[in-house]
Fold this sequence. Notes:
Elements: H1 2-19, H2 23-30, E1 38-43, E2 48-57, H3 60-78, H4 96-100, H5 102-108, E3 119-121, E4 132-135, E5 138-148, H6 149-158
Antiparallel strand pairs: 1-2, 2-5, 3-5, 4-5
Amino acid sequence: xxxxxxxxxxxxxxxxxxxxxxxxxxxxxxxxxxxxxxxxxxxxxxxxxxxxxxxxxxxxxxxxxxxxxxxxxxxxxxxxxxxxxxxxxxxxxxxxxxxxxxxxxxxxxxxxxxxxxxxxxxxxxxxxxxxxxxxxxxxxxxxxxxxxxxxxxxxxxxxxxxxxxxxxx
Length: 169
């Protein structure tokens, strides 16, 4: 009986060690450019998507701009999950679309860049309450945003970044 208990404890300990991540791996995952929180808030007007996105920054203002950038990044590279009566929306580009067009996206996402013309904050000012969380190194801010999906897609098609919908396969 004692031997069986020792074997079971050893097996349990071995399985937990196999699934553990190193601190470096966890940090890389959470600091990834594709690690952001996006939630569908429902159906918007024609051609728009309503989202709740989160951003991080040293100041609440920085976190708001990061959340807006995350909303556009999610629409372009990751897609929007289904929820609150809205169907899932696929990404406009694949993840490797950024590597293929690095110069364009670096300029597009720079501070005060063109990406801001496709996202509207539906919250006035800096959010408070549960949508504004003080953290060790700054703030985490949740923002309700409306993304003009059709205009963004048309713009990326005109710039030659995305394939036109009628281009076929």
